[in-house]
Amino acid sequence: MHYGRRRRRVNNRVASGLTLGIALLACSAPETAAAPATHAAEPQRVWVTDGTIGAITATPQGVFAGGDFDLIGPETGTWAHVSGSGGVAPIRTPVEGTVDAAASDGRGGWYLAGQNFYVGGLARRGLIHLRSSGRLDKRWRPHVNGSVSALARVRSTLYVGGRFTKFGRKKRLRLAAIDVESGALKRWAPRVAPGKKDEEAYVSALAVARDRKTIYVGGSFGRLGRKRRADLGAVDAVSGSVRRWRPRVAGEVDALALDPRGRRIYTGGEFEKAGGLRRSGLAAFDLRKGDVTRWNPDCDGSVSQIVPAPSGSPVYVAGSFASIGQRSRRGVAALDRGRGAATPWDPNVGGSVETLLLAPGHHTVYIGGEFDSVGDVDRSNLAAIDTRTGVAGSWSPQTIGIVGVLVRIRRGVIGVGGSFSSVGAVRRARLALFDLDGRLSSWAPPLGGAAVRAIAASPDGGRIYVGGRFTLGDRTARSLAVIDPGTLTMSAWGPPINSGLWAVAPSPDGQTVYVGGAFTSSSGKVRRRLAAFDANGALTGWNPGANGLVNHLILSGDQMWVAGAFGSIGGAPRKGVASLDVATGLATGWDAGADDSVHALAVVNDSVFVGGEFESIGGRSRKYLAELDAGDGSATRWDPSPDDYVNDLQVSPDGKTLVVVGDFEKINGAFRDIGEFDLASGLLTPWRPDAPFFASALAFSPDSSTVYVGGEGVLGVFR
Questions:
Q1: SS3 labels along 566-617
Q2: Is 66 in contact with 430 (CB distance < 8 Å)?
Q3: Distance between CA 522 and CA 537 in Å, rounded?
Q4: Pairing of strands 17-18, 598-604
Q5: What is the rounded distance in angstroms from the CA atom of residue 378 to the CA atom of residue 372?
Q6: What is the pLDDT of residue 2?
Q7: For 467-514, what is each residue's pLDDT tens digit?
Q8: 562 FRET partner, CA 20 to 30 A, in 329, 529, 579, 639?
């Protein structure tokens, strides 16, 4: 599976309260309960988001997921075929690993270059070949010891450039040639080396001469073969000998493109001088002598790709810049062939453009990169632009992640590669609804703002409360809203609150809604991180006060269990976790004495399970996860000791298991992305889910058959 990789912690607050008496045993070895795994190791569904999912709640209407995301899409991997209508073709075997370059095999298949690939359970480094069916060519397997970033195919030879030094056991310094049929290494071996020993050398771009006798090489280097060449040179396509052509560039060359008229080569990258003259980011060299031409667009940033029109003018360029050709142009521009002046064409891209593709007929330019708009139109990293007007077309396959490669597959189909995780995403800002099987619904409330951080259903199921800091169809910042489960209408609820909510806990009778978070006032009255509202949304007098963030609340009888990053609460010193008297709001005598913040709670009869950032709690050394006595706050013998923070924990509705998620990779002595404990024995269950991301929230389906796990860029559905 291709997930967003692990990053640091995210606080969360999903409540769980059950009544089941247990006495867990100490577990210092990686023991597991003698029972079959409760769920499949591979998720039934995986959804990709462009932000973090920090709150999940399962209701009869479906699964609500909240966070700071804008887009949700299917997991596609990093290589996809997109139609002219923007549809993504079914992907039989997703490619995992960044695609930095692509070259056609001439038979409907493609060579892809990058660093590390994982396709259909097989690992490959540097290069892969996909057949026309989209499946990996298992027999084509060049053994490269580094990354490949540039490709060029000439008949039966695939030229490759990058940061490698060997193919198999043979030395190949940053340049090599491979047989396209067998993958065997050819004798062609011009060496690319740094100018000085302490410098780095690599190849970033290749271009093939019109007569196919010369390969132009760009990158960062000081020597090509045994000749001095400054970041740009040319070699014979057959012998590998270095051409006498000797241009000079003072900086990295990332893009090369031959002029269709055959007189010059365009060079782009990150440099300030070329041929001894000031040429910032872009230059053109004469193909005979190697002299820099008068063409001088004077870019104020970097250039990643250059595509001249078939007639030679204009010259389209993509990159990260705000001014080029003596005009304000962002991300992409069209330049005159004569002196490099920008034409009136101005798409005004809101971000950087890594790649562009000129469509047949030359009426459309497709662009990919890392941007969120083209002109006044929202576009997420992929767009089509009219070459006459500069206006974005309707083609808008929204992408989560950076697009670095665009190629023409066949008529009406474009190959898209890069470091993304989803192509074909849909907009779901801050909140989304899935059915219990994990299928995304069409419901899309008009949310904006920072994030949704808490979701809770009323006991009678008549309301779903949503907390965080967001806008709801206007510019007013709100912290609390309510959803009608029948109509899915969402509306603001309660009085003004001056900051975000992290926890919502409706009372069993539905007459009071308790909230926690980072706020300090509501309705103009002081309410420090804790407050309560009646069924009509009016502020009550309940006012315990806490001096730090409250991120989890659980009502259990006449007690309110509270977790967060506070040091005092309810009028008493209590760090990280506390018990409050619901009637008075005052802290009870229960004091676990945590040495750091607590992220999550679960109350099970006489036990309180806690997870967070602490290393000592309940009078004992307990790292990140503990079971506390509900009577006196002391830690029990149970000690799973995860190797990193716990962000959420839940007890299953059937009362059989405790599931724990967070930043850890190892728990109870065993490697686990998610930890599931049998409550009868206190041992890990055999369930070993594949969830290699930082999880921050989880929820169970009402029948315990499904676990929903969300985190940094991912929602996984396990059955």
A1: CCEECCEECCCEEEEECCCCCECCCCCCCCCCEEEEEEECCEEEEEECCCEE
A2: yes
A3: 11
A4: parallel
A5: 6
A6: 46
A7: 999 999 998 999 999 999 999 999 999 999 999 999 999 999 999 999
A8: 639
